[in-house]
Amino acid sequence: MNIRQYLDSTYLKTSDQANLSEAENTQIVKNTIEEAIIERFKLIMIRPDKVSLAKEMISKAQSNLLIGTVIDFPEGKSSLEEKLAEANVAIQNGADDLDFVCNYEAFKNGEIDLVKNEILQCTRLGLSNKKVVKWIIEVAALNDTEIIQLSVLIKNIIIQNFDENDYSSVFVKSSTGFYKTENNLPNGATVPTIIMMLENASPLPIKAAGGVRSYDEAVEMINLGVKRIGTSNAKAIANGETSQNQY
Ligand SMILES: O=C[C@H](O)COP(=O)(O)O
């Protein structure tokens, strides 16, 4: 198995440190894009305002690195119109993958029609532009029943509204990597959570993200059956190392 094929390289935390000036911030993102090109990762996951920069660097380097970006990150609370507008700009700027944060608070509050509609409309926008779409469900904010229900909801929307050939382009993703639990418990890609997602979202693929820190954890996720891993520690993992949790 080639672990590099599974790795998204996500550096959202480093590019989001509030104490960095805008210039330093951009330089950090540049460094991580460059690293992802050199390391030949599958994809660099960056904030929407850095997509054009990544596009330029990737084309200059004649690299096959894909660009992913996050929409309505990290809380997923914006309106459908705002989500669509942000996604449209990312598409125009050259993003390949759109990782939408699902409005999981609305889901928890029983506003199911709102959630269904955003999943349907945003997925339609992504797929009609030949993009990969991912739905971040923020598992740490949900109990087990909610994780199962939301995975099933997303699966059913896709199965009922899109062609079978599109299923592999719509992922359910575990975490933003930004959610803070009160006691700092692991808040993303834990084994029990990923198993629940795999069992309930199939045939949609799963992206394990949030807290994947070591080569062994990444391999465990791959063996469970995930199709992507999102991590801000991609380089260390690809080199068989463990890195510190950044929370
Ligand atoms: O998908 C993106 C996440 O930021 C990955 O989380 P992480 O920083 O815990 O690896």
TrEMBL record:
Q: Which GO terms describe its cellular component?
A: cytoplasm
Assigned EC number:
4.1.2.4
User: What are the GO BP annotations of this UniProt entry?
Assistant: carbohydrate catabolic process; deoxyribonucleotide catabolic process
Alphabetized, the UniProt keywords read: Cytoplasm, Schiff base
Q: Which is an annotated Pfam family here?
A: DeoC
Q: Which GO terms describe its molecular function?
A: deoxyribose-phosphate aldolase activity
Name of the protein this chain belongs to: Deoxyribose-phosphate aldolase
UniProt organism field:
Flavobacterium hydatis (Cytophaga aquatilis)
